[in-house]
Design goal:
Elements (H helix, E strand, L loop, with lengths): L25 H22 L1 H11 L4 H4 L1 H20 L5 H21 L3 H22 L3 H4 L5 H30 L1 H22 L13 H8 L1 H21 L2 H8 L7 H21 L3 H22 L3 H16 L1 H12 L4 H29 L5 H25 L1
Helix pairs in contact: 1-5, 1-6, 1-8, 1-9, 2-8, 4-6, 4-17, 5-6, 5-9, 6-17, 8-9, 8-13, 8-16, 10-11, 10-17, 11-16, 11-17, 11-18, 13-15, 14-15, 14-16, 14-18, 16-17
């Protein structure tokens, strides 16, 4: 990166609009927004079972812990797909790949809605994992190619608003659809959203030619050779695993632990969603990404601690849910910003590592939460999740101390 904006960055920038003076016109932001909608649709698909867990488990006769595999399976597949796509499909135009992955996601959601056996649901969810890993690995580093350099932080916040919005808006809306029309209708609704994202990507996103293709060996080299990248991956593993250890089971936490009526959970998740959107854009506007992530760890720890301590006190649980949404809203954009700042010369490779860690952590969190729920009780989940979040705070503090010494 040579510090100049606009088309001065040569092959790294796609000229979306008609201006060459460093300003971004509407077409550039439409393209960024189309990518954000694609990520929103994909991540909503990945996390949709969180709000439908009890519906699916009852309808298909499996335990809540087993139903949590609907989150685990796509997470594992997405983690494996992200680096594979970066290496094997590196020469394919990015718009073509993004459109293909969104189309696959929509088809997989239709398959989920039509499945009569849980094994078929899991097979379709594996295809969801392929689409998520491939799409996010490409889209995560795309903002610097669509807008001038001075607009990259804002564009990155918009794109990753799609990630945080999925867990804080997509899941609550999907839960409401499930409450009103059944879990199969919720999957069909997300399939339709994927169809809309597909059309907008094809219409609004310009061709984005591939750049230099990384080798598979480049990824572990980046991880080993860059302390900042290594720390970012570790933070993702701890923060996201802790988040989804608890969030996968937020519905039973609200109903069984906090004593809140089941009919209110959809609306409460929408409140969580609004808080998360606020958290995302506050984090995106912050200059100190380390401080942003540290504040997120404190907020998450506090919220989970309230769930662990408050027991059947509904008002305390509602307050904790708002803090939870605010805190987690900044995690996705914070982690992506961290990776881009510490590996700006290889954004797609760094993003592939983050996507791998992020989705593996979603899977691991759902698995850990399911094991805790089945072996102990749902009420034990916040304590396990909170311990992982605290470890993330320790890693952040350690990175700051080592940076001062160097």
């Amino acid at each position: 990166m040579n510090g100049r904006s606009g088309d001065a960055r040569g092959d790294d920038t796609v000229q979306v609009g008609g201006r060459v003076d460093g300003c971004v016109d509407r077409r550039a932001w439409f393209a960024v927004s189309a990518v954000a909608l694609g990520i929103f649709a994909l991540m909503t698909t990945e996390l949709l079972p969180v709000g439908l867990l009890t519906f699916v488990s009852a309808d298909l006769s499996v335990s809540d812990g087993t139903a949590g595999l609907m989150v685990t399976v796509p997470g594992v597949v997405a983690a494996a797909t992200a680096p594979t796509v970066a290496v094997l499909l590196g020469r394919v135009d990015r718009r073509t790949l993004l459109a293909a992955f969104v189309a696959l996601m929509a088809a997989a959601n239709v398959a989920c809605a039509l499945a009569e056996h849980f094994a078929l649901v899991l097979a379709a969810r594996a295809l969801v994992g392929v689409s998520i890993g491939g799409f996010w690995a490409i889209a995560g580093g795309l903002a610097p190619r669509l807008v001038p350099e001075r607009h990259v932080p804002r564009a990155t916040a918009v794109v990753f608003g799609g990630v945080s919005s999925a867990s804080v808006i997509g899941v609550p809306v999907g839960t409401l659809v499930g409450d009103l029309a059944g879990w199969r209708a919720a999957f069909l609704t997300v399939a339709a959203l994927g169809g809309l994202a597909l059309v907008l990507l094809l219409v609004l996103l310009p061709p984005v030619p591939a750049r230099a293709v990384p080798r598979l060996s480049d990824l572990p080299s980046l991880l080993v050779g860059h302390g900042g990248v290594r720390t970012g991956v570790l933070l993702a593993l701890l923060l996201v695993t802790g988040q989804f250890t608890a969030y996968t089971f937020v519905r039973p936490l609200l109903t069984d632990v906090a004593g809140i009526d089941a009919t209110l959970t959809g609306g409460l998740l929408l409140v969580y969603g609004v808080a998360g959107i606020v958290g995302n854009f506050v984090a995106g506007s912050g200059r100190d990404v380390r401080r942003t992530l540290f504040v997120a760890t404190v907020g998450l720890t506090a919220a989970l601690g309230v769930f662990g301590l408050a027991g059947g006190v509904p008002i305390a649980a509602v307050a904790a849910l708002v803090v939870w949404g605010l805190a987690y809203g900044g995690v996705s954009v914070g982690l992506q910003t961290w990776m881009l700042r510490h590996a700006s010369e290889v954004p797609e490779a760094a993003t592939a590592l983050l996507v791998c860690a992020f989705n593996l952590s979603i899977a691991l969190g759902a698995l850990v939460g399911g094991l805790v729920a089945d072996a102990l009780a749902v009420a034990a989940i916040p304590w396990v999740a909170g311990a992982l979040i605290v470890l993330a705070g320790v890693v952040l503090a350690g990175f700051r101390a080592s940076s001062r010494r160097s």
